[in-house]
Write a structure and sequence with these properties.
9 strands; 8 helices; Rossmann fold; 256 residues; seven-stranded parallel β-sheet
Length: 256
């Protein structure tokens, strides 16, 4: 006797909607931050970005305004306390509420052997203190809301610890530890903390030319900024009960 298979309804994946969420992205005018801003804005989020340079901000805003009317931008430097306060004042005004902070603004750096104090201080203040200061401001607002999400973009360098990059490694190892401790401090307020640690990504931080980066991407030795943007999106759309604590994302052919 023949039997008939019953077709079940497709498996439903439960996710949050980013539409209407207020999202602040540091270093959002170039690279990973810019790609994340474009993706999240295209999904209906209200997005504010900032970077240090007006030309890069203008270029980013031209692209962002093609996908959404609710995108905002300004120039600011995370090494300056007054700039950080100005950013959050503007974020409260334009976004009305900050649901997600993407800590992404960072600088490349090499070895402490060849460094000088002023340059090292600027990198540490950007890559580490800037993350802490922005998280502090965001938490003050998120605690009042009873919810929020901080996504810290770190680096595989925190674990790989490449020779010749001790300054950069120190800051990214700091972000790794900061993220783990911060989650324990703020989850009681309904605030999530996620750490994303990419491998090599084709951005302006890389020493290779854009053409060389494209070759490495084609050979699967380098990621695109859009790959990390998709990972950020994945983290922020998970249900309230679900914390994505850490993600390591590497190019397929990157051996370490």
């Amino acid at each position: 006797m023949a039997t008939t298979k019953l077709h079940k309804e497709p498996f439903a994946i439960e996710t949050e909607d980013v539409a209407g969420k207020g999202i602040l992205i540091t270093g959002g005018t170039t690279g990973i931050g810019r790609a994340a801003a474009l993706l999240l804005a295209s999904r209906g989020a209200r997005v504010l970005v900032f970077g240090r340079h007006q030309d890069e901000l203008n270029d980013a805003m031209n692209d962002l305004q093609e996908v959404s009317d609710e995108v905002y931008g300004l120039t600011a430097d995370t090494t300056k306390q007054e700039d950080i306060r100005r950013v959050f004042t503007e974020a409260e005004r334009s976004l009305e509420h900050i649901d997600v902070l993407v800590n992404n603004a960072a600088l490349a750096a090499n070895s402490v052997v060849d460094g000088n104090y002023d340059d090292m201080e600027y990198v540490v203040k950007t890559n580490l203190l800037g993350y802490m200061a922005c998280a502090h401001e965001a938490i003050e607002l998120m605690k009042k809301q009873g919810h929020g999400h901080i996504v810290n973009v770190g680096s595989m360098s925190a674990d790989v610890r490449e020779e010749g990059s001790s300054i950069y490694v120190a800051t990214k190892a700091g972000i790794q530890g900061f993220s783990a401790a911060l989650r324990k401090e703020v989850n009681k307020y309904g605030i999530k903390v996620s750490l994303i640690e990419p491998g090599a990504v084709g951005t302006d931080m890389q020493p290779e030319s854009p053409a060389e980066q494209r070759k490495k991407q084609a050979s699967e030795e380098m990621l695109k900024a859009e790959d990390i943007a998709a990972c950020i999106h994945y983290c922020v759309v998970q249900p309230k009960r679900c914390d994505v604590i850490g993600v390591q994302i590497r190019p397929h052919m990157q051996p370490i």
